[in-house]
Amino acid sequence: CNPVWGCSFKFDVFRIDTAMRIGIYRAGLGWGLLQDELLGRVEIPFLDLEDWSGCPIGRVIEPEDPESIPAGACMFLELQCTLEWL
Question: What is the CA radius of gyration of the chain?
């Protein structure tokens, strides 16, 4: 699954005791000559998503290179999920 900002996406979950792992990338520059750069990741348990279903949820992103951001600063991801168990 490779969603873009501002779009909805849907995927099947088969176990509730797992988590959604999100990687945040900076698009490569130079007309595709440079690869996308991984900025950081965050892992959110599906049980947390179920508790916050339909509401905004925020998480701090763990940077791939901790030295890349100034001391005391952080990257933050806000998303809104809706879970439908079938």
Answer: 15
For residues 26 and 39, the answer to whether their CB atoms sit within 8 Å is yes
How far separated are the first and last CA of the chain, in Å rounded? Answer: 20
Q: Please, which pLDDT band fits residue 48 given cuts at 50, 70 and 90?
A: confident
* Three-class secondary structure of residue 85 per DSSP: coil
Distance, in Å, from the CA atom of 36 to the CA atom of 23, rounded to the nearest integer, reads 11
5-47 tens-digit pLDDT: 777 777 788 887 888 888 888 877 766 677 888 888 888 888 8
**What are the residue ranges of helices labelled H in the chain?**
46-51
